[in-house]
């Protein structure tokens, strides 16, 4: 008989029949019942029983991260090794023994009990009748449309002293994570990417030099319409880079999109001549990802080009490392998976590959790419686990609507980001480009907004992973054409439809009227303590928008006509320029907008600080949010602009933290001084 561990909602039951003696407690039970054809599993059929052990200390992750990241902690900066982090969260040794003892006392041969490498699981194959007796349940099987047989039960019981150490047992009642969307949206080349190239000559007709620009050096006169590395250095008071400390390469995550050496060389020659021709990042291929590509290749969409160009321009002679994730069938969206980041996290932390948290173990096959990939051109190797070291700083200019991923999936992944923070890594993400909405078209809405029974496309659609409280979400800012680097920046918002019309270069993919710094409030996470006061301060003075308070499973989004979750984690945390970057893509001069620019810029700033810290014998800055919320004066507060969309005015930038530009843009000398003093 062919049995599969994949259990889907195709088998649902009606409460369970076996007796439940007093010594046992119900460990899991199906909530909903459905009338589907079902057969008892043959008593002698071998069932692969997997016992997922409860990880210890999951709920203490936040405190532990604050212990090493909060400036007032005596252990600030004392980051942990991967092994230390692993052992904190691994199941307690006695949990393993208690569950093993129970199995042995139930008549299972000790030799047949296998311990997974990371101690998260015990595995034992046993006949159905034995499993049913052990778990006080009945196993059913059902045929699935793909020809495979799935087995499961309606509920099962465990002795109380065992139950407390068990997360869940497979096969059991666990279904694949509930996808809230009926059909998984295809992730094409641009879906999931923050930043779209927009063509425009550097000086459009009708633009005249602002009066204040006349007194500036020539290379700073055009910054209001043409941001360059020199403009960024002036805006944020960045040093001319000259350090290269071993181990401080800056990481950028790329998926599908790949850079072209021709393009980055053209950029260096024209806008960052201190970076020698031929300078190229180290490329680490994750599960078959490849880079670079030829200049005219369809995968050279601009995202990788700009990430690498900005980072190298700001940190050279320090180097850049590209984590190029996923083989083509998957990264192109061909396999219809909308999973994000898990395969990358597997590659940099082997223990994550089969780590259990929030009821999920390992990648989610219904959501994540599966390797080996049998599709033509697919990666034929095994899923890569722990094959690379993560750089101290990594910038991710990708994301998707939080709503498109199940909450437990997002929680498990966010928890991993917490563990990387414990080890001293800074994980940065672009906060999105459509203001309070997600990508145009997502969630079946032209503008990328959410709907409810009573609201049609008027509910704000928060971004993931920006909503994870352990990541640093970076929003975008801009100068206006009549301004110079001496002026305060505003939140990045621009009507790109009008912009294209003005230059006659034609539209890209509408609607682009509401291109603006992504920001808002997560429906899955509440504000972490480090930002609670900042968020409260903002909300106290901003009462104009209707809101709701999301419940535990975020099933009431849009309740009471509300458009945002007033009880959510606010994002972004910080900001940097994300407008008018002129660069080459497919060897053509284009102008780019988006938080895709802001995240590598902020990551470069942290990398420069890490270099200076290394020189004085200090470790990397690690997870920076607690320090920055405690000392917001090291950032330039952005107080002008807003991010309207979804049929309302969005949020307004204002004094202090706001959900468009966070705490603001870098003031490098102040940041450096602060981090040196900690
Ligand atoms: C790159 O430019 C060449 C020449 O203009 C053009 O033929 C090709 O289609 C372009 N590639 C892409 C992906 O747009
Ligand atoms: C929601 O609004 C769109 C236009 O923005 C319209 O096409 C659609 O039919 C509306 N849906 C419902 C259920 O009213
Ligand atoms: C954006 O610009 C276009 C073209 O000028 C215009 O039709 C549209 O109304 C503008 N959108 C907004 C929201 O102002
Ligand atoms: C403030 O932002 C608005 C757009 O919201 C823009 O038109 C204006 O020029 C900005 N003012 C300053 C001083 O930056
Ligand atoms: C966009 C892209 O490169 N898609 C490729 C995905 O993989 C299939 C088969 O492996 C190719 O035919 C597609 O061209």
3D architecture notes:
With 678 residues, this protein is α/β, with parallel strands linked by helices. The chain has two domains: 10-55 and 90-170, no CATH class; 180-539 and 568-677, Rossmann fold. Strands 11, 12, 13, 16, 18, 20, 21 and 28 form an eight-stranded mixed sheet that branches. A hairpin with a 5-residue loop joins β4 (114-115) and β5. α1 packs parallel to α11 and α8 packs parallel to α14. The longest helix is centred in the C-terminal third of the chain and has 21 residues, at 595-615. The radius of gyration is 26 Å and the shape is globular. The N and C termini lie far apart (62 Å). Mean pLDDT is 85; it is low at 1-22, 33-37, 174-203 and 502-507. It binds 2-acetamido-2-deoxy-beta-D-glucopyranose (NAG) (5 copies). One 2-acetamido-2-deoxy-beta-D-glucopyranose binds at residues 328-329, 332, 334, 375-377. Residues 456-457 line the site of one 2-acetamido-2-deoxy-beta-D-glucopyranose.
Task: Set down the secondary structure blueprint.
Blueprint: E1 24-29, E2 39-40, E3 46-53, H1 61-69, H2 82-89, H3 93-105, E4 114-115, E5 121-127, H4 128-135, E6 140-143, E7 149-152, E8 155-159, H5 160-163, E9 166-170, E10 196-198, H6 229-236, E11 250-255, H7 261-271, E12 282-286, H8 303-315, E13 320-325, H9 328-331, H10 342-348, E14 356-357, E15 360-361, E16 393-396, E17 400-401, H11 407-422, E18 426-430, E19 463-464, E20 472-478, E21 490-491, E22 493-494, H12 496-503, E23 515-516, E24 520-521, H13 529-541, E25 547-548, E26 564-565, E27 570-571, E28 574-577, E29 581-585, E30 588-593, H14 595-615, H15 625-630, E31 635-636, E32 665-666, H16 668-677
Parallel strand pairs: 11-13, 11-16, 12-13, 16-18, 18-20, 20-28, 25-26
Antiparallel strand pairs: 1-8, 2-6, 3-5, 3-9, 4-5, 6-7, 10-30, 14-15, 17-19, 20-21, 22-23, 24-27, 29-30, 31-32
Helix pairs in contact: 1-11, 7-8, 8-14, 14-16
The structure holds 2-acetamido-2-deoxy-beta-D-glucopyranose (5 copies).
Catalytic activity: Release of an N-terminal tripeptide from a polypeptide
Keywords: Calcium, Hydrolase, Metal-binding, Protease, Serine protease, Signal, Zymogen
Function: Secreted tripeptidyl-peptidase which degrades proteins at acidic pHs and is involved in virulence.
């Amino acid at each position: 008989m062919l049995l599969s561990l994949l259990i889907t909602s195709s088998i649902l039951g009606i409460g369970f029949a076996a007796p439940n003696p007093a010594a046992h407690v119900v460990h899991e039970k199906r909530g909903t019942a459905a009338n589907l054809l079902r057969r008892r599993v043959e008593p002698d059929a071998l069932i692969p029983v997997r016992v997922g052990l409860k990880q210890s200390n999951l709920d203490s992750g936040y405190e532990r991260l604050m212990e090493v990241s909060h400036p007032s902690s005596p252990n600030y900066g004392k980051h942990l090794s991967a092994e230390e982090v692993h052992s904190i969260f691994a199941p307690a040794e006695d949990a393993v023994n208690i569950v093993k003892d129970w199995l042995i006392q139930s008549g299972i041969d000790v030799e047949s009990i296998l311990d997974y490498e990371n101690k998260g699981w015990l595995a034992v194959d046993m006949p159905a009748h034995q499993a049913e007796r052990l778990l006080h349940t009945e196993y059913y099987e059902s045929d699935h449309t793909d020809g495979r047989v799935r087995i499961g039960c309606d509920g099962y019981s465990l002795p109380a002293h065992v139950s407390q150490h068990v997360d869940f047992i497979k096969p059991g009642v666990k279904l694949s994570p509930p996808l809230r969307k009926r059909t998984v949206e295809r992730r094409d080349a641009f879906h999931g990417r923050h930043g779209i190239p927009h063509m425009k000559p550097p000086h459009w007709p009708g633009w005249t030099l602002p009066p204040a620009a006349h007194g500036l050096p020539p290379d700073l006169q055009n910054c209001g319409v043409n941001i360059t590395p020199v403009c960024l250095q002036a805006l944020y008071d960045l040093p001319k880079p000259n350090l290269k400390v071993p181990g401080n390469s800056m990481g950028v995550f790329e998926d599908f999109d790949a850079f072209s050496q021709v393009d980055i060389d053209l950029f260096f020659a024209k806008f960052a001549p201190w970076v020698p021709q031929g300078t190229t990042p180290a490329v680490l291929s994750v599960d078959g990802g490849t880079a670079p590509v030829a200049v005219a290749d369809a995968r050279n969409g601009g995202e990788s080009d700009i990430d690498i160009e900005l980072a190298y321009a700001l940190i050279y002679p320090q180097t850049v490392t590209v984590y190029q994730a996923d083989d083509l069938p998957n990264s192109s969206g061909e396999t219809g998976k909308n999973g994000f980041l898990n395969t990358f996290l597997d590659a940099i932390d082997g223990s994550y590959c089969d780590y259990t948290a929030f009821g999920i173990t390992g990648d989610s096959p219904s959501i994540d790419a599966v390797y080996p990939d049998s599709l033509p051109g697919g990666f034929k190797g095994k899923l890569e686990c722990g094959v690379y070291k993560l750089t101290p700083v990594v910038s991710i200019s990708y994301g998707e609507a939080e709503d498109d991923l199940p909450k437990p999936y997002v929680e498990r992944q966010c928890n991993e980001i917490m563990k990387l923070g414990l080890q001293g890594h800074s994980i940065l993400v672009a906060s999105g480009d459509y203001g309070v909405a997600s990508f145009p078209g997502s969630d079946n809405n032209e503008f990328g907004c959410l709907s409810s029974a009573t609201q049609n496309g008027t509910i704000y659609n928060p971004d993931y992973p920006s909503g994870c409280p352990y990541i640093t979400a970076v929003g975008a800012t801009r100068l206006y054409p009549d301004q110079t680097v001496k002026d305060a920046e505003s939140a990045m918002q621009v009507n790109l439809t009008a912009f294209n019309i003005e230059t006659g270069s034609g539209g890209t993919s509408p609607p682009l009227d509401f291109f603006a710094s992504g920001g808002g409030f997560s429906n899955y996470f509440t504000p972490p303590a480090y930002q609670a006061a900042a968020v409260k301060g903002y909300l106290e003075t901003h009462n104009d928008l209707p809101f709701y308070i999301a419940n535990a499973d975020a099933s009431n989004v849009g309740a009471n006509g509300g458009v945002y979750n007033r009880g959510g984690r606010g994002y972004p945390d910080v900001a940097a320029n994300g407008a008018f970057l002129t660069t080459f893509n497919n060897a053509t001069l284009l102008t780019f907008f988006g938080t895709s620019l802001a995240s590598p810029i902020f990551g470069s700033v942290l990398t420069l600080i890490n270099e200076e810290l290394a020189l004085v014998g200090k470790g990397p800055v690690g997870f920076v949010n607690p320090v920055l919320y405690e000392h917001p004066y090291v950032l330039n507060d952005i107080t002008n602009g807003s991010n309207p969309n979804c049929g309302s005015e969005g949020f307004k930038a204002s004094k202090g933290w706001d959900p468009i530009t966070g705490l603001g843009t870098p003031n490098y000398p102040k940041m450096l001084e602060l981090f040196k003093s900690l």
